[in-house]
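Blinded run. Sample ID left blank on purpose so nobody reads anything into the name before looking at the predicted structure. Input follows.
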Amino acid sequence: MKKILILGIGNYLMGDEGVGVHFAQMLEKEPLPPGVDVIDGGTGGFHLTNYFEAYPIVFLVDATLDGKMPGTIRLLEPHFSKDYPKAMSTHDIGMKDLIEALILMGSMPKIYLFAVSIETLQQQQVTLSPQIAAVLPVLKKQVFELIGKLQ
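Blinded prediction complete.
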């Protein structure tokens, strides 16, 4: 059985931009398959390095400002920082720097990025819009289906 980390990232204080954090907090209250852990990674950055090094497979869940219909979920398999959506979110630079550092250290796990399209950043808002909140069950289904295929 492969160890898998589900890492929700985002800024909880910026509305839909925090979708990854909301998703992680939702999963923390539910039973997970054996070998699967979930972490609320907040706004990312180098403090997450140990998690990337400890797991051979990491599912990243993050918001993206990609111009697609809000609530669109895309599964990406990025290999380099340039493979990430151009406008990930407010923590874009820190996550791309982390990915580059992991590549240089030879510690890069297999990453599956579940990118959730959002319309805008909402300052000082800790709730998700109804449109983004409604996709959490769909996102959960997609994440668990991929876990089933990989284990």
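Unblinding after everyone has recorded impressions. The domain at 4-150 is CATH 3.40.50.1450 (Rossmann fold).
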